[in-house]
Amino acid sequence: MSTKTMTATSVQGLSQRKNNFTGLRSPGLLAKWPVIGISLFVFGSLIFGGLTYNLYAHGPLLAWDTKIANTLPAIGLNSPPFVKIIMDAGYYIGDQVLIGLGLLLGIYFIIKRNWQELVMVLAGVAGSQLLFYFISNFVARARPPTQIWIILTSTGFPSGHAITVVAFYGLLAYFIAPKMPSTFWKVVIVASGLLIIGFVGFSRIFTAGHYLTDVLAGYSLGIAWSALIYTLIELYYQKRNRKQV
Predict the structure, then answer these.
(1) Is 27 exposed, middle or buried (0-12, 13-18, 19+ CB in 10 A)?
(2) Three-state DSSP class for 191?
(3) Domain of 94?
(4) Residue 2: inside a domain, yes or no?
(5) Is residue 13 part of a domain?
(6) How many structural domains compose the chain?
(7) In this predicted model, what pLDDT tens digit does every residue of 133-151 receive, in sequence order?
(8) 20 to 30 A from 2, CA-CA: which of 21, 60, 72, 219?
């Protein structure tokens, strides 16, 4: 094959990939394989149920909660100033930054008229916040008395940050990863999402904004909620689109 032919083939392939890119859309994997969403929902629900039972039954994990809540903040107070900046960043990434990104994503989907994706973002974020509000107020578990830097007085089980970062950053990775041109970049996107989720949760434990089981309960509830609502939304729009054909 000549250089000219190879160049033409490359340009044609690039043009084809560009034409196939229709913007940031849901890949539809949960509608294609609902068993994935069902399995994640059951998994998250069971873990959340177990952690809730551990709380009410004064199970063995509560001892770890207390130990960690006494140890990590003490380390933080004796750390260099940059540690506070990093840990505070975890709070804002799971709060103001997340809200800002969510608004931008929502505006993007409104402009593109991608209503399914808009509903997924709204249901994921708003729903996770409602879950946190109702469940945390029902359980009414106080936050650790050893909180440092960012002090909150609201109830803390499960962690609202943990629920929301799973719902939002997990969804963002779900949207972006399939658009990546290679397996390597798909892995990078998924790993980045997991890193953000893990960092936000760790920062809340490190500063004693939450007990360890608060964050784990938030993660598990976030997984259950995201799997359920995103699967249902995809299935609904899949059925709706078939009727319109």
Answers:
(1) middle
(2) helix
(3) 32-244
(4) no
(5) no
(6) 1
(7) 999 999 989 999 999 988 8
(8) 21
